[in-house]
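Supplementary Text 2. Reproducibility record for the structural model of the 37-residue chain.

All settings were left at their defaults, and a single model was retained for analysis rather than an ensemble. We include the record here because the model underlies the residue-level annotations in Supplementary Table 4.
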Amino acid sequence: MAWEWAQRCVYEHPDDDWPEYEDYGQNLAFATLRDPV
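Retained model, structure tokens:
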């Protein structure tokens, strides 16, 4: 099941086609308090 979800990932920077992700980008991992490693 995890592989099926991983296949749904879209590796593109958000643009006008995805207005719900307007304030998010590739730097999202740096905005968390968790250690990403």
